Input
Amino acid sequence: MGGLSDRDPTSFEPDPVIEAYKKDIDRTLLRANLERSVEERLRDLMRLQRFADEWRRAAERVFR
Amino acid sequence: MIDIETALRVLAGAGVEFIVVGGVAARAHGSARLTNDLDVLYRRTPENIQALAAALGTHAPYLRGAPRGLPFRWDVATIERGLNFTLTTSFGDLDLLGEIVGGGGYEALVADSTAIPVFGVEVRCLNLDRLIHVKRAAGRPKDLEVIAELEALLEERDNTRR
Output
């Protein structure tokens, strides 16, 4: 598991707007991430950044 | 884009006291959202400002979005005169925050952070519940979807611990 802990896990006053957004959250992605270590999660982020950057540059080449 | 590994190694390796906040902290907790910069809350002590100035000095820090060629100097005096800096560096976009909206400074938040070993260094990361509190307190409409994901993450994490 991740290795991050919280000192005092707290419940939050429900906010209707946040609750509405929460219905569309893909929890399978979150569960998969929770199975990874913090370092794996951050390496995934860096891979995603590189992919997004490459995609953006490719789109610029095609559509400019 | 930010090379998170290099950024954290540079800062922690130089002995800078900081807490990872924002999108990278969310990602460290398990968020699936993409973020392109690293937000860190740094301690505003003379020793730490000196360490921060030295740590980034060789990594070409410059004001993000500013025209090229401005007489920007990254040194102790600049950091002391400012508070929050949005920078480009040789390893990517780095936001150095002396305070965060809804949270305050390093001293106010350090007790709500956890030291984690990552990329061969130890880095403090803001705890998930505090991250949610800060985002809620900031009250920015653009954060609503982010908060929803963080709260879902907290629920999922608590479910796995039961």
